[in-house]
Automatic annotation (TrEMBL):
<dbReference type="Pfam" id="PF00590">
    <property type="entry name" value="TP_methylase"/>
</dbReference>
<dbReference type="InterPro" id="IPR000878">
    <property type="entry name" value="4pyrrol_Mease"/>
</dbReference>
<dbReference type="InterPro" id="IPR050161">
    <property type="entry name" value="Siro_Cobalamin_biosynth"/>
</dbReference>
<dbReference type="GO" id="GO:0032259">
    <property type="term" value="P:methylation"/>
</dbReference>
<feature type="domain" description="Tetrapyrrole methylase">
    <location>
        <begin position="27"/>
        <end position="233"/>
    </location>
</feature>
<dbReference type="GO" id="GO:0004851">
    <property type="term" value="F:uroporphyrin-III C-methyltransferase activity"/>
</dbReference>
<dbReference type="InterPro" id="IPR014777">
    <property type="entry name" value="4pyrrole_Mease_sub1"/>
</dbReference>
<dbReference type="InterPro" id="IPR014776">
    <property type="entry name" value="4pyrrole_Mease_sub2"/>
</dbReference>
<dbReference type="InterPro" id="IPR006366">
    <property type="entry name" value="CobA/CysG_C"/>
</dbReference>
<keyword id="KW-0949">S-adenosyl-L-methionine</keyword>
<keyword id="KW-0627">Porphyrin biosynthesis</keyword>
<keyword id="KW-0489">Methyltransferase</keyword>
<dbReference type="InterPro" id="IPR035996">
    <property type="entry name" value="4pyrrol_Methylase_sf"/>
</dbReference>
<keyword id="KW-0808">Transferase</keyword>
<protein>
    <recommendedName>
        <fullName>uroporphyrinogen-III C-methyltransferase</fullName>
        <ecNumber>2.1.1.107</ecNumber>
    </recommendedName>
</protein>
Length: 271
């Protein structure tokens, strides 16, 4: 499905007291990639935007192609080990353009409040007296496993979900979740940290047979899934040349055959 962002204006978008243009910032969750997985509100806000400050992941490229020529698009995407626009500068950009009377959409991959630093951007706007709102998006922590036929919870298998930032330290609560058969652990931004995570979990006493799935490029034509176990995933991921973006799922929901694949959407590769 192709969406067209038709330019819209409302009186409240442009004036206050009849004369002064009032800007604002809307943090919009773009979901895992396809634009048709965004909410209707997200599409409306993009149609009203003067400026779009876009992440690398999510629907940035598809959205950019549908925006009008008068919309300023600012790319602030980050890649592993390469952050050309630091978070403080992103915050400043939002405030600067809103103070100039513009409607600013901060388009973020996934959901703004799930390891997306959206809270920091809200605080920066509030500190500057800028009106700000947050529109939720579908988090890759749920949607990318789903695209591979992996439910993050499943009756009789897993009843809780633990989401981890793979770039940070692995806490006792994370290690405890890995040891609990009723918990699914999902690691975002964790490909480089996979050897460290596996070593810490095994040292903590987590079974080497605990199922692991790595879903690469979820919701894109390049999607693939590598299934393994905690004891073998490092070697298997290396052999398969797994790269970012990828979501790591650890727990019994990741075992092959839990759900019957019903469409080619669930195509997998194995190392």
């Amino acid at each position: 499905m192709m969406f067209r962002f038709r330019r819209r204006r409302t009186a409240g978008s442009w004036t206050s007291g009849g004369s002064t243009r009032v800007g604002r910032v809307d943090l919009v969750g773009g979901g895992p990639g396809p634009a048709d997985l965004m909410t209707l509100r997200a599409h409306r806000l993009l149609a009203e935007a003067d400026v779009v400050v876009a992440d690398r992941l999510g629907p940035a490229d598809e959205v950019r192609a549908q925006l009008g020529p008068d919309v300023l698009v600012i790319d602030v995407g980050k890649r592993p080990g390469h952050h050309p626009v630091p978070q403080a500068q992103i915050n400043a950009l939002l405030v600067e353009h809103a103070r100039a009377g513009r409607r600013v959409v901060r388009l973020k991959g996934g959901d703004p409040f799930v390891l997306g630093r959206g809270g920091e951007e809200v605080l920066a706007c509030e500190a500057a007296g800028i009106p700000v709102s947050v529109t939720p998006g579908v988090s890759s922590a749920i949607s990318v496993p789903q695209a591979a036929g992996i439910p993050v919870t499943h009756r009789g298998v897993a009843s809780a979900l633990h989401v981890v930032n793979g770039q940070g330290p692995f806490t006792e609560s994370t290690l405890a979740s890995l040891s609990d058969d009723s918990v699914t652990t999902v690691v975002l931004m964790g490909v480089a940290a996979l050897p460290r995570l596996a070593a810490a979990a095994l040292q903590h006493g987590v079974s080497a047979d605990r199922p692991v799935a790595v879903v690469e490029n979820g919701h894109t034509p390049q999607q693939r899934t590598v299934r393994s176990t905690l004891g073998a995933i490092v070697a298997d991921a290396e052999e398969a040349a797994v790269i970012n973006p990828a979501v790591i799922v650890i727990g019994d929901v990741a075992r092959a055959g839990l759900l019957l694949p019903t469409t080619s959407q669930f195509a997998e590769s194995s190392a």
